[in-house]
Amino acid sequence: MVDLVPAIALNVFIEPYFRKEILQKLFENLDKLPDEIRRELVKQVKEHVRISGFRNPMVAPRALLIRDAETVFEKDAKFSLICLKGWQSLYSEWHDILEKNLTDLGFSISESAASGYPDPMNTFLEGWPEGIDFDTLYEKITAQVEGFPLSKDETALLSVLLTGYLP
User: Fold this and answer.
1) CA 137 → CA 48, 69, 90, 133, distances in Å?
2) pLDDT for 111-160, tens place per residue?
3) What one-character DSSP code corresponds to residue 94?
4) Is 131 exposed, middle or buried (0-12, 13-18, 19+ CB in 10 A)?
5) At 165, is the secondary structure helix, strand, or coil?
6) pLDDT band at 2; cut points 50, 70, 90
7) pLDDT digits 0-9 by tens, 104-117
8) How many Cα atoms within 13 Å fall on the side-chain side of residue 66?
9) Could you give the CA distance from residue 123 to residue 129 in angstroms, rounded to a whole number?
10) How far apart are CA 23 and CA 86, in angstroms?
11) N or C: which end of the chain has fewer CB within 10 A?
């Protein structure tokens, strides 16, 4: 039996400043999310994010929303996963190129990733190809893809989400 870890296990690899960037980008681009993801995200925010003085956290100032959503993101696998799916969808134009480069580097795509992460408690496998870490991954991708616009953090997270494998 393959041991899958919950979506919140990814928090071990996400620096606090980047977690904030993820949520900021997500909430700034709500209108660009696929309808199903946007509905689920708004539902999860309304159910789990509590901001003093606001019945509906979605109408709170963005800084408060991000601050309080970050706490939920770190502790709730379902909330974390819908945020990650939304964030991933914002980079859809890079999915095919990145997937091709990842498979060329020895990555495979997990069943969980291929099926869209149906279970937040059984999300990721562990184990990147031998000799690949965040720095090496970024160097190899930027060397292969001319004008690659993603940061090292974005590339690493997108690689985890596209493959379903944690380092």
Assistant:
1) 35, 29, 21, 6
2) 999 999 999 999 999 989 999 999 999 999 999 888 889 999 999 999 99
3) G
4) exposed
5) strand
6) low
7) 999 999 999 999 99
8) 16
9) 18
10) 10
11) N
